[in-house]
Amino acid sequence: MNRSSNLDILKSNQDKIWDLVVVGGGSSGFGVALDALSRGLSVVVLDKSDFAKGTSSRSTKLLHGGVRYLAQGDILLVLEALKERGRLLANAPHLTNNQPFIIPIYSWFDRVQYSVGLKIYDWMAGKWRLGKSRFIGKSETINRLPQIKQGGLKGGVVYHDGQFDDARMIVALAQTCTEMGGCVLNYAKVTDLLKDENGTISGVRFVDQIDDNHLQVKSKMVVNATGVFADKILKMDNSGARKSIQPSQGIHLVFDQSFLGGKDALMIPKTSDGRVLFAVPWHGKLVVGTTDTLKDKPQLEPEALEKEIDFVLETAQAYLAKKPTRADVLSVFAGLRPLAAPKEDGAKTKEISRTHKVIVSDSKLVTITGGKWTTFRQMGEDTVKHFPKVTGISIQPSKSADIKLHGYVAKPEQGPLSVYGSDADHIRAMMKDKPELAERLHPDHPYTAAEVVWIVRNEMPAKLEDVLSRRFRVLLLDAKAAKAMAPKVARIMANEIGKDAEWISGQLADFEKVSSKYII
């Protein structure tokens, strides 16, 4: 996966008519691309920033059916998500895992309520079930969650859900789509929609934001998969288009794993604002969240509000014996959920359905809105189903449900290179060939110089932030460590792509601005 090569493909094929252009390189966009490619269609994916820069790298890192959605009676969404959860664990075992969760029980009514509800959750998962839910006593709960608040504790209910690395999953999807013949390009901002004499969408114009190339791509169908930015593309098509997206912000605080202890995740099913709170072990740290704050305008780099930070801290302190404080926060990150705008004003965002919606405009622009990470592939399949309607051309059945993603290994190794899957062997070979590449970039983290070289050559980063935030996940795990690593990583990148000291200083300055938002 090479950015220059893909850019050259688009430059030299200005008159080629592709089957699909997908605008947006997050989970929705790559769900569409993967499904279309599985049907033999030709696909271009364009993203105005790095792949997964927005919502898709800022999730709670869960592949789940949604216990909360079950409580709300959204049965079809939960069934769909549980099936897709199972498929993704089967297709990308190097990026996913079975994560046990424990709901602490402080009343016998809660024991009955959650035991019954989670048995239904197990039953709905069917053959995709990851483990049986069960009640455990107080001593086992404390043994498995050493820092849980013990006063009034009666036990816990254990259940199983999926966990993953969201941004690394997008990298694997981009690599998979490339291997299937797709052309993917980051830092390619769509500036206009092409239309024929009948006003029907026939492609897009975009600007390459790295070298300022202005290009166009012709296509039979254009898909708007830009998440919280979907309305910008809809208004590009029709200035009078009604609002389709209601952004809702969620934040996460990252702590040392010792604040929970053990390997299990904690789930608080009802907080003071009615939302679920998760405390989940992830890459050796503890991710705690989330909030639900209505936002008027989407931002590419949203920032946590003080009231959100306070809410997560206060809720965590109420359930943990070792009380986390602001000084203990290693990183804070915020993301925006692209919820489908409610028809009625005043609807609470936590009550807006996470089901997705496919909209076909009069111009035949196809927009996918709503949804959730876990169901991205099904969202893609449901979007591509509109291809015959839009183009009049029949298509093959979808095969995306069974595609093994790039790096697939049947039995993934454990350890810092596990997210690379089968590519880990190449990285180890680089270290053996050049022992200096085995050097760790920070004493508290396992990332090495060899990984930076591999990433630059194979994973299409264009900026320092792309490596430290989305190829490595260190910006989200430990923002101060990311800043400390930045100069070394920038020098390795510059050496690989032939950039000078001016480029390095510019990248470091840009990263300083971004990383400061992750530190409180």
Automatic annotation (TrEMBL):
FAD dependent oxidoreductase domain ranges (all copies): 19-346
Parts forming coiled coils: none
Residue ranges of domain Alpha-glycerophosphate oxidase C-terminal in the record: 416-502
Keywords: FAD, Flavoprotein, Glycerol metabolism, Oxidoreductase
Keyword ATP-binding: no
InterPro entries: DAO_C, DAO_C_sf, FAD-dep_OxRdtase, FAD/NAD-bd_sf, G3P_DH_FAD-dep
Family stated for the protein in its record: Belongs to the FAD-dependent glycerol-3-phosphate dehydrogenase family.
Entry keyword annotation includes GTP-binding: no
Name under which the protein is recorded: Glycerol-3-phosphate dehydrogenase/oxidase
Cofactor(s) the record lists: FAD
